[in-house]
Amino acid sequence: MAPLLIATTGLQAMGSIMQGNAAADAGAAQQAAYNQAAENERLAAGYEATRVYDRGRRAQSAALVQVAGSGVSLAGSPTEVLADNAIQTQMDVDAIRFGSQIKQQNLRTQGDLAFMQGQQKQQAGYLGAITNVAGGLTQLYTPRSSVRLGGSAFA
Q: What DSSP designation does 71 have?
């Protein structure tokens, strides 16, 4: 009976450790996926910001050509309009980059949380293994007062 109890206890302990290690690996994989998503977000925002900036630059150039072709001086209102357009374009680019930074940070935080949860589950697996071993040892060494060899059951 004792060898079976020892084997069962060992298997339970190994199972707890394997579960914990698998959870830790899953947490690390999730963290890597979130970090990759954050990098993809950074690249996409950079591309979008460049497109907005180029669109604004082309519109600014077209407006400048229009003003110059009309014979109107660049002093006064046309200059203010061009400056306002440039400011608006830069604000749009900055908004894209800022929004992207927030998304990236959120994704990285989610990755860190996934990693931490995996580590906690791994530690729980180790504790489960220790508990299984302790429980098995307790069962192995519990006195069995109802069984006596070589004596009367009535004594």
A: T
CA nearest to 39, candidates 118, 103, 117: 103
Rounded distance between C-alpha atoms, residue 64 and residue 72, angstroms: 10
pLDDT tens column, 48-60: 999 999 999 999 8
Element (H, E) at 84: helix 77-140
| Residue 113 contacts residue 30 (beta carbons within 8 Å) | no
Per-residue buried b or exposed e for 62-90, using 16+ beta carbons within 10 Å of the residue's own CB: eeeeebeeeeeeeeeebeeebeebeeebe
Is-contact 90 54, C-beta < 8 A?
no
- Record the tokens describing residue 42, joined without a space: 């950074």
CB atoms within 10 A of CB 128: 18
What's the pLDDT at 154?
A: 53
The letter for the amino acid at 77 is: S
Beta-carbon-side half-sphere exposure of residue 88 (alpha carbons within 13 Å)? 10
Q: What does the pLDDT look like over 110-144, one tens digit per residue? A: 999 999 999 999 999 899 888 888 888 788 776 66
Tokens 């800022």 belong to 98
- Would you state the pLDDT for residue 144? 60
